[in-house]
Write a structure and sequence with these properties.
The chain contains four helices and six strands, in the order E-H-E-H-E-H-E-H-E-E. By secondary structure, it is of the alpha/beta class. It has a six-stranded mixed beta sheet with strand order 3-2-4-1-5-6. Helix 1 packs parallel to helix 2.
């Protein structure tokens, strides 16, 4: 039986388009193709306020303050650091350690671990594999099966129903940065 009352899944922030400008940068400002663009770091900061506002209520009643944060592992430096970079600011603000025990390809294991958590869970992941997480949480393919490459601005929300036996799927458009769409992913 699932324990997590709510699981929120986001794609990492904006990324470089290969080895051409603009470049990704580490938290220390070093050029790195596996890190976020400055716009991605801006999104990471805005997400911290979205999920843990310093004053007042959350921007959307469908969101909640996470008690556990997961991010895709960077496989010992061999792949993207972007999922962890994106949720690290939320983790810092809430004084939560980001769990990077799972890597891309382990979506079923991640979903099982997230569902077993108490309270509210936030997951930062690579967009092509987020539908696999959704399928594992829902137990079906009712969520969109493709996350568009140009979309960095949506939260997929999974709420545990009143029976505690199934999750309901919804989407929240972040509307944090210029160009963010008010439309969900279809």
């Amino acid at each position: 039986m699932a324990s997590a009352q709510k699981i929120m899944v986001i794609r990492h922030g904006e990324k470089p388009q290969g080895a051409i400008p603009p470049y990704g940068v580490t938290i220390d400002g070093e050029q790195d193709v596996n890190s976020l663009l400055v716009a991605g770091w801006n999104r990471a900061g805005a997400l911290a306020v979205l999920f843990a506002p310093s004053r007042g209520e959350l921007q959307s009643a469908e969101l909640a303050k996470p008690q556990k944060v997961f991010a895709a592992s960077d496989d010992a430096g061999k792949s993207s650091k972007r999922p962890e970079e994106t949720v690290s600011v939320v983790g810092q603000k809430l004084k939560l350690q980001v769990d990077t025990s799972y890597s891309v390809g382990q979506e079923q294991q991640l979903a099982t671990a997230a569902m077993a958590c108490n309270g509210v869970v936030l997951v930062g992941w690579e967009h092509k594999h987020i539908p696999l997480i959704a399928n594992a949480i829902l137990g079906n393919t009712s969520a969109p099966q493709t996350w568009p490459g140009e979309r960095f601005d949506v939260v997929w929300v999974f709420d545990l129903d009143s029976t505690g036996s199934a999750y309901q799927f919804s989407q929240v458009c972040q509307l944090l940065l210029p160009g963010d769409s008010p439309e969900p992913i279809l």
